[in-house]
């Protein structure tokens, strides 16, 4: 297996620049060129089309890129399986998490997990649901935790936790000061919402459409913290996970707008490529995840 060459090829395919690839991999630029030439000789095809202004993959380069990601993932899994054979949890676990999970659900879990497996290097990459799905598909993370939906057939999707969504506003907002409000009283209000691609935004759109609500104005902020600060300083509403606002409610910075309506729930899910489900580090993390929310 051309491990170093494939690693160089994948990096070059993603950054599309020989100099940057050399910097990332701590190689000389001639070494990068040699790795690509070795692969082109091995597969008897051109992998890149070079021009003064840009570098792009050929159709066979794109085919190799997808297969190379799978080969590298299989190689890493094999290394992990050998470590497992020696009864030691080592190596690295990369977790992709959507914002609500990555910022509020996952952090309380990680210190104890790291304490139990001190030789395991943990990395958490946070993005919206759409971004996490792409990271899982491209094997840039071992497992993804998402709050939205995905129809990617090549991924395994398993719910692990129920999450409640609540409408929140500043303490000064007229609706926050009422004991209970109807859905109809939410007409023509200003809202602050997450960006398209976020699981929370997906649910917000569903909530607005299914209740026939008209929006006076809509502000988009791609950060839960940014939304909360905007609510505190303004006069708008937002639909957020209860876990996101729990501390702000407790400290009196925000208020829940109580509806005479059943609570809103959604499911958090973990997703991974089938090849990753048997990886030891993924399995032990899933056991911890599932045990935590069964308790």
TrEMBL record:
Keywords: DNA-binding, Transcription, Transcription regulation. Transmembrane segments: none annotated. CDD domains: PBP2_CysL_like. One of its GO terms (molecular function) is DNA-binding transcription factor activity. InterPro entries: LysR_HTH_N, LysR_subst-bd, WH-like_DNA-bd_sf, WH_DNA-bd_sf. SUPFAM superfamilies: Periplasmic binding protein-like II, Winged helix' DNA-binding domain. It holds the Pfam family LysR_substrate. The keyword Transmembrane helix does not apply. It comes from the Bacteria. Belongs to the LysR transcriptional regulatory family. PANTHER family: HTH-TYPE TRANSCRIPTIONAL REGULATOR, HTH-TYPE TRANSCRIPTIONAL REGULATOR CYSL. This is LysR family transcriptional regulator. It comes from Geobacillus thermocatenulatus.
